[in-house]
Amino acid sequence: MFEKLISEHEERSLIGSQKSDEMDFIDVLLSLKHQYSNTHEELSYTIDRSSMKAILLDMVAGAIDTAKTSIEWILATLIKHPRVMKELQKELKTVIGDTQVVEETDLTKLSYLHMVVKETFRLYPVAPFMIPHESMEDIVINGYNIPKKTRVLINYWAFGRDPKVWSENWEEFLPERFLKRDIDFRGPDCQLIQFGIGRRGCPGMNLGLLNIGLVISNIIHCFDWELPNGMSPSDMDMKEKFGLTIPRAEPLLAIPTYRT
Is 222 annotated as ligand-binding? Predict the structure, then answer.
């Protein structure tokens, strides 16, 4: 599949049918591969055909499964908590209106949506652990001796459920906990490190948040959701299935009803 995509981009580049402002990620990789200036000479040799396919595979694998898992958890928590669902639909009706589709430019106005996303990520992160890190020097943290070059795994799942950080009501799904707290994925306080922090943070964070926000806002704005067979939201199974990612143990089954 990647070979076909790369070949199509090469053919399009040869016939000169593409404008500079229409370049996508594959075009950028090809331009680096064929650019033999002093600045990019080493890069042009490094990005060969196999490397390009590996980079594209990372982009696809990293963006699809994580976004899908996040969207399923957010929708599940909204169905599980009808009060939060109604509050979000109320915000969408106020900001967007009754008949319009949510656009990318609308997302910055949807403050409650962002609180819902943060609260879901706190309780149901996409992955239980961050990617492995390595200590750069000998250090003692809270009485624990960590030698230099030790592989360190950060348990983000436990961070989001620590009562010392989130108070005794940490088990409650409460987006309003972010209302008066300046906590963000980019913040230095390390309370929301879903995407990592610093220079090793996820480069796809902005794209991921944008995709998730657009999908959730539109399916909540356009549809009401109910569980099949008369099931009550309180009966929903919210157990996780642990692995490299944390999907739901049971896939979410929900029935949409058109509302706008």
Answer: no
